[in-house]
Amino acid sequence: MKNIFTKIAATAATGAILSVAxxxxxxxxxxxxxxxxxxxxxxDGSQDGMTALAYMLQNPKFDIQAITLAQGIAQPESFxxxxxxxxxxxxxxxxxxxxGRSDPLQGNNVYPDFIREGANTFWSPFVTLPDTAPPxxxxxxxxxxxxxxxxSSEPVAILATxxxxxxxxxxxxxxxxxxxxxxxxxLGGAVFVPGNLGVLPNPPYSTNKVAEFNIWADPVAAQExxxxxxxxxxxxxxxxxxxxxxxxxxxxxxxxxxTGTPESLIASEFLDFALTVIASDNDPNPVWDLVAAINLxxxxxxxxxxxxxxxxxxxxxxxxxxxxxxxxxxxxxxNVCLNPSFDNLSFSTREVFSAESKSVPEPTSVLGLLxxxxxxxxxxxxxxTVN
Length: 387
Fold this sequence. Notes:
Number of strands: 11
CATH class of the largest domain: Alpha Beta
Structural class: alpha/beta
CATH architecture of the largest domain: Alpha-Beta Complex
Order of helices and strands: HEHEHEHEHEHEHHEHHHHEEEEHH
Shape: globular
CATH topology of the largest domain: Inosine-uridine Nucleoside N-ribohydrolase, Chain A
Distance between the termini: 44 Å
CATH superfamily of the largest domain: Ribonucleoside hydrolase-like
């Protein structure tokens, strides 16, 4: 019997190798010929979230099934028009948009008005949008998340770069969606470093030294999401510990602009705004959400650490509410990125939106794994691009 299985495996591997070789070497090969992971992008209408969205729209590893807007930096019901025009500028059609509630599940934590005003004007004059665009189909965010996950023939990845409000509501609506979510990548929290509310001068922000904005905006929702790990939800967390390690510079902004694709051009405008208006000693990397997007896309970007994350929900907003605490002695509920590095990747910060970053999607099928195993590590290191 062993010899039979060996022959079957060898035959399958040979066929898979030929298939992969044809797909890689053929001048007509593109992302459509390779496995793409269904993806939902959930953001709170932030400039760095829109940068991450632009990165994922041009990423051949993913097929965006929905974009959902959570309460946070923007108010979902008003920001949807800006998102519609951004998608119109990029020539993207057919992706439904979920509009979330305008307040957290519990409490009254909100971003200050002057930050929300930037989202309302879409960070003008740094970023420009067309006056009109093809209309997008809108649905309540939680319902859209449940629908897309339940209908997908393949497990769905979720990139959550805002508050956890929409994700928690979707889990409340139908907890069984956990069974068809491959991973939930969260941008949020500050595990072993200070929070970022203190960049604002007034309470409750200035007095809370430990919370990060995305988690603080709805700590009850965040705790519900981390609790869902007990039911099988696979969570990866990219906190400030990670984003503090990565910087994007004016040289990166110019390189993205020179790349000249629709996504790279708008990303360069977002980065121009971030470097001009946000960047400071307290905010070394004002493109937080992009780090999480890269972490989701590139498994080698960060050696993640399994931790049990608990959210502080029962203290005043200006004290420790929203803090992400790593609890010793409890089963891990998240893989946490603490030390990402572009040294682990085949492309640099300047090439995030260029062909060098568009590596062939990693195999997910048995045949794909056999093929890549037989081809050896060299094929992965070279990371042949898909044009």
